[in-house]
Amino acid sequence: MVVIEDLNVSGMLANGKLALAIADGSFYEFKRQLEYKCPLYGAKLIVVSRWFPSSKTCHCCGEVKQSLSLSERIFQCEKCGWTCDRDLNAALNLERVGRAAPEFTPGDCWSRLPRWKQEVKPKSVS
């Protein structure tokens, strides 16, 4: 299972400080490739709405911050005190969304992946 956020790339490009990094990131192509490749490998792609507050929600207690500016790179929950990088916090929240999806069954995706037989040949000692 792959979970991504439906980012507002055109809105992000309007920010002069982020524009070059965002344009270089090829987000649209990355999403397009995931939409193409996931079914080939039996993986489910879940695209979370851009309005889901993944960066503002505490991964530990679920408390949602009212505001979190882009310059704040560290997420700190006022309720439980949990602290981590804001991107890691968002990724953990997206993982939780994926695990809560009704089609998620642990191990199911792996069982549909193609298997390759791999043998290890011991080296001969001369």
TrEMBL record:
Lineage start: Bacteria, Bacillati, Cyanobacteriota, Cyanophyceae, Oscillatoriophycideae
Domain Cas12f1-like TNB residue range list: 27-94
GO MF annotation list: DNA binding
Domain of life: Bacteria
Protein name in UniProt: IS605 family transposase OrfB
Assigned keywords, A-Z: DNA-binding
Keyword DNA-binding: yes
Entry annotated with the keyword Iron-sulfur: no
